[in-house]
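#struct-help
A.M.: can someone run this one for me? Single chain, 956 residues.
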Amino acid sequence: MKTATSVCGRCGAKASDDATPGVCPACLLETGLALLADESVTGIVDSGGDHGVRAPDRKKATPLTRMLGDFGDYELLEEIGRGGQGVVYRAHQKSLNRTVALKVIGLGYWATEAHLKRFRREAEAAASLEHSGIVPIYEVGEREGSCYFSMKFVEGGQLDEVIKRAQMSIRQAAELIAKVARTVHYAHEHGILHRDIKPGNILLDAKGEPLLTDFGLARLVETESTVTRTMDVLGTPSYMAPEQAVGNNAAVSSATDVYGLGAVFYQLLTGHPPFAGGTTYETIKLLLDTEPRQPRLLNPKIDRDLSTICLKCLEKDPKRRYPSALALAEDLEHWLKHEPILARRTGLFTRGRKWVRRNPSTAVLITLLVALAAGSGVVVWNRVFAVPMPKSVAVLPFSNLSKEEQNAYFADGVQDQILTDLSHIADLKVISRTSVMQYRNGVARNLRKIAEELGVAHVVEGSVQRSANKIRVSAQLIDARADVHLWAQTYDRDLADVFAIQSEIAKAIADQLQAKLSPSESHVLASVRTHDTEAYDLFLRGEYEVHQAESSWAAEAYNRADAFYRQALARDPNFAEAAAALAHSRLLWHWEISPLAPAELEEVKSFIDRALALAPNLPEAHLALGLLFYFGHRQYEMALTEFNRTLELQPNSALARLACALVYRRRGEWERSLADFQRAQELAPRDARIPRNIGNTYQALRLWKDAERAELRALAIDPHDAPAAAYLLGSRLNGTGDVDSARRVFNDFPEAIKSLNLVGHGNAASVGLVDAIISIPVYLDVMQRRFTDAFQALDKEMANNNRAHLQQLVGRVALRVLAGQTEAAKSAGEEAQPLLEAKLRERPDDILAMTGLSWVYLALGRNADALRLSRQAADSLSIEKDAMAGPFFQIGVAQIEARGGAPEEAIERLGRLLSMPAGQVVSIARLKIDPVWDPIRNRPDFQQLLSGPEQIGPNK
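D.P.: on it. Structure tokens below:
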């Protein structure tokens, strides 16, 4: 095709007709370079809308960068500022003999009519405002083709420059934003929007009072114009509202200025704007796709109320921000007077839901990527690294340099105790043991990458060498961002000095990071756990075994830990930490392996009482007491009290924060639970338990894709996390009802996961019958009515404890019932009946035994007994008592009712479960495929249930 040519209106050269009309490529490039020079200052280029490039009048033109000198009545003294529309000079107005600030349009002779019109609008808008908090306009005019206006010259300087010289206190920041907000409200009352509120547009006078300037992006609210209809992106990226970033000028309102105020406030509080990428594009992408970090994570001195005020201003949805700048000012003033604020925190669930609504196509893409990852066995997890807090540290595993390899436990123990000491310091962010232990020596460490993955600025490395009664400990503190060694020390001491060494290292690290220590924190660092080095050695051996048990669910490791702790206490009965650790270990056995008898739980309580009597402020003892209330007695309110006490004593305890999240979930406080999960993840970013539980929570809320993403993150951290794998399958089945897809996911799991039988564990994660009566491979066969395969899979499973053996017996009974094998079901039931009845006589409150026995009675034709027992189990742990476990027992009742002669009750119960957060046990997709509901499947009321709604998200 032949290309036509035309003549450039600027230089007369030939230009092809497919180029920008009237401009040759060389001139267009020159114009672009001029615009880019301006972008380097503002971050945004005004494109001039649809008006194209205006050819200059060379006789009237004024260049972008003017030489200092006369400009009519003004003598230009120096350039003092440059923005998206103009250049600001300090100037002397000769006729009135005064110093002024003179703003001249910055696009010179290449300005479009739209730019000039916007500039004139700026001047008109600003000149109409008379307020003590707004820089007054003196004169508006035009000279040599350039528009200009003169303003009062403010001596104090721009806010961004002032805070570079001296940090502003939190209270001063609140006072300043309250004043500016009242000024903005005045402008709004007069029909003017600012649209570019940023630190550079807030001036401080000699007394430190703020004045707002540069209404360069303002417009008259009631006026429609070609300016407002352009697709220009107006504002400065780090401070602009989302509606500005997408060019939706019709959506720009007073709420846009509220966002700008919040963004400036965020910078004053944290030292960083809410979003800042390496380029304009990256910044806008962060603005649109992510939520700002909690200010309190960047500056722990910020209290919860002030953080809430700031984040309310930064809501993506303008309707969720303050209704006016005045409302923001008043809420800040409430805070300044120590009065209750009106803003309320936005929960994690709400933020996640808003993101999906903002990014539906991205959400679909991520869903497809998740499905692809699950199908191929490759987990892809995209993470945006946050700016780490300066006072943040990860204590990496210490190298064992001892000749005896078995001394590895001792090196782990020294590192763990230093980490524990540091975790007591509220002024530090300290990463949990679970997350750092993944970075053991063996290959060269990339410290910068590790620091990024953990979200910290600093790392500690070290080594331990033990020989007889001598010990050498080396440690070094490194700024991982710059790869700079800040401190290093080697200690050659007697073994008896190990406590002093650990304390000195922790204190040195705190000093180097300039962490402020309270008297109580200083006391913790100086305390001696025991004076018996042999007792301490036994304690460290016990700690090592517990950590092994937690990762493998090995009963033998728990038994070894129990023995070591008891030996340590035998040597030193006053060793409070050993008593607390023993109690903790026993409670994990109770939850993970097999329930303790009441007398055994009393013994656990005695160990906790001993620890608290010896050390009333020992966080490990309060954590153990909380777990006793939680695991042992399901007394969630009392458990929460102890977990919060643990956090008061040890603010960096990720385990206590995780426990709080679990308790809130049990109480049905879903958003609060997710918020605490998020806070725990900040302290333990490489702990698979946290995203695993986040996923399980999303599953309960029927947010299936969110649940899958969280479980995939858990598996990316730990590919052998069996509960995460089970929850992932549950989300897939409950969300889609696609058994083939779930089976493909299962087949791609590592063999260690597929062969691990979760039946019998306290946190068993079956996707099938209540509380893991049958395991995952069996359940997948059941969903496809492949009962022969299901029986073969069940026969291959090995029970590793009595609890698992009983539940497998019940599983066989249930399978025979579902397969319609009446006589075989009866025979299996007769085998299981005496064992389960004996279990109930021994423990009348054993609700798992009640549930199992109800299936046995159903197989034996004792329907009335089956219904009675299943309802008794559900009443024992109702949803009101436990929002997470309660639905399991409710669905168990519904299953018995559906098959035991009470179909109406079953359908009514299912309807209630579908109307509340209970996605971990029931969904419409799963009701459609689960054979347990076959006896009522053709009933009209059941079919109506399948066509009805189900609740998504928490109760409202």
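A.M.: thanks! Residues 231 and 247 are 5 Å apart (CA to CA).
D.P.: also worth noting: Confidence is low (pLDDT under 50) at residues 1-66, 217-235, 358-387, 757-772.
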